[in-house]
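During the no-cost extension, the postdoctoral fellow (Dr. R.K.) reprocessed legacy sequence entries with the updated structure-token encoder. One reprocessed record is reproduced below for audit purposes.
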Amino acid sequence: MPTNIFVSYPSDDLERSTAFYSALGATINPLFTDENAVCWVWDDNIYTMVLKRDFFASFTDKQVGDAATAAQFQIAFSRDSRADVDAVIEAGLAAGGSEHGQAQDYGFMYSRDLEDPDGNIVCFNYMVPEAAELGPEAYMAQRGQA
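Re-encoded structure tokens follow.
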């Protein structure tokens, strides 16, 4: 059985989060969605659970941080091209998100960070397939850019 990845984080406004993540292209798994949580499916094995803040707090005895002022996690999703990265960022901006920092272009990898309306950061990136196979240093050396 493959390993499934579930990343959960709190939201102050589940309806707003639902509109935002829907605009990014994730789909809802209704079996794990109710008035307290929305389960977002990114692919067959990767899910994000957006939980109402008080419901999220019921899973831990630690203080739940405020994503607007403190980093809690970073999740990154790969895309098939630079254009796909730009398209998902633009969709997120149109849905109420904001870009967090500048686009990062390392030659072999391109990434942009999107802040959701609660302040959680979601990264989208594209890596040249050969760089993923060889590793960044070997790929850049091959191209005379080491």
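The chain has one domain: 5-57+70-142. The two ends are 40 Å apart (CA to CA). The remaining legacy entries will be reprocessed before the final report is submitted.
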